[in-house]
Amino acid sequence: MSLEARERLIELIRAHAGMANHADGESDASIGAAERALGVAFPPSYRRLVEEFGTWDIAGEEFLGVYRTLAHGTELLGSVKETLDLRRDHGLLAELIVVMFDGMGGVIVLDSSKVDRFGEYPVFAWFHVDEPLEKLGEDFGSFALELCEKAVRQ
C-alpha cells in the first residue's frame, strides 16, 4: 500500500502544481548522509519522496524532507536538523525521525523501531518525552497521501 501511495502522492503534487511547492530532490549520497547523521535509515516511502522533491508542501501540508541552502552550506536541514535539535534539546528518542510539525506544538515522527515487512515505519504524533506517542498511520506513504488528498479537496 505504501509503495503505491508514495507514487500517487508524487502524481498528486505534480498535478496540483499551483498549490504545491517543492525543491529539486536529493541524491542518494545526500540521503545517505542524512541517514548517517540520524543513525537510522529512511523507510522506502519517505526516501522516495525525498529523492523526488527534497522538501515539499501542498495545500498547506508541509513536509520537512531533506535539503540544503546557500546560507547554511553543507548543513542538512529539514528532518535532519529538526530531529537532531529535538533529540538534543527535548529528549526525542533516537529511533524517531521528525517529518512534519503538527501545528499544535508537536511533531509528526516515523518510528524506526517498529519496521513492517516492507521496511516501512509507523507514523506518530510526538509532543513531549514524558507523553505517549499517538499513532496516526501505519506507514508514511499512506499517511502523507491521505493527508494531502484531504488538503487538496478542501
TrEMBL record:
SUPFAM superfamilies: SMI1/KNR4-like. It holds the Pfam family SUKH_5. This is Cell wall assembly/cell proliferation coordinating protein, KNR4-like protein. Gene3D superfamilies: SMI1/KNR4-like (3.40.1580.10). Residues 25-146 form the Knr4/Smi1-like domain. The lineage of its organism: Bacteria, Bacillati, Actinomycetota, Actinomycetes, Pseudonocardiales.
